[in-house]
């Protein structure tokens, strides 16, 4: 009896093992032995993808495979953007063409490969080549390809996967960065292998293990700005509207291909000659310009009259100027932490200019204290800075400094530049983006005030010892410090006063200063904090970066496939 039980147990175990082995063979009857992706990033902003899929049908009889390629991607705001995808060829490893058909819906381009009248088994290699427009993402400090190269929707396992990213722009490999994610969709595992090839300046990504069905690999490769053209994806609309819009833009761009660039260039040259003819720039000028009513130009107005633009330097100079006049106090708690404290009610103050009220409203809103760093997270702050610039232009326009608003001209030129890049009209793009803003013409009185502002700038940046007669005067140093900050020459200005023992001013709360250098270091650090607050971190279309919060299945690309 015991012997029979023993034989029964052995037989049962053998049966279970053989059954599990058979199930395993059945489950692995189909697989992708190797999935290799070669991607070239082109200068025009497109990417060329070549997928080498080594598919093993096992003993199953099938017609071929299908590959589903996503033609949309979603940004962080939930908006869907269209990726124009064009299949160039489907061949085997020897270059022989396969029969294939394509179908397209709102989400996928489906490639069905094989012959309906023919059944195949065993191993076959499929080489699919396609071109994608809009796959790249453009950020303020870098550009990026965030791409799911295998897809997470394959019905069969992938035994080995790898991808190679190359550039047709001659980029140096030391400027490349790569990160990758492996696993099921949403996985943040970075077990996949990555490498930068120093020889051919390419990025390499490969699997660390066999990928099960529905598993995949996503990578992000970042590279410096300016290497490729900006080719943003279009928001998903009907193809008819896209085609009509594209035709209209191309026709308009062609009609103005020569005339408009020449016109912009001529207007810029005329403005430069007009200013040159009437300017009277002195080696040194110790006072900011004044309007006809003797109202003194603020640091922001003085900076704008010179270069017709506003950035963090003018904004910082304005804040320091307002602090000196008692409207706020700058509290320096540590190296990069600045607190702005409201010290005076400015709403009913007639001596303060409208754009100065704007900047105080932007900063404080309904608060009495604000951390400068917190402004970076406020989208309203970034938008309000544009209102600040508009108010300065209104002030200068009312003072008859310009014939037309520079920002209106600049906005038109930027829009024209974007259209010209889209239609590959390079002369128009250069003319509009390089010379467009400079064509905003100053009036005669505007040129006079430009001359005074330029003379003040010359004085502030000069190292001429003959101009050091005020080098022991802290009031004189403080008076022109906001203007030096607006010009970006505060360090040079401080050099004149290197031997001056500073007394901490009332508008500043922080460490005591024994020299002007420490004071200027504070000003420089404060300016950098303001600049950081004015710098957005998302891409122009609202896409997130693969280097921050990325995952398997994220970015563009992806999809999957199977056999039929």
TrEMBL record:
Domain named Predicted membrane protein YciQ-like C-terminal: residues: 297-422, 426-497
The protein's UniProt keywords, in alphabetical order, are: Membrane, Transmembrane, Transmembrane helix
Q: Which residues form a coiled coil?
A: none
Q: Where is the composition biased (Gly residues)?
A: 547-564
Mind telling me which Pfam families this protein's record contains?
DUF2207, DUF2207_C
Keyword presence, Transport: no
- DUF2207 domain span: 31-223
Domain of life per record: Bacteria
Q: What's the protein name?
A: DUF2207 domain-containing protein
List membrane-spanning regions: 247-266, 414-435
Q: Where is this region: Disordered?
A: 544-564
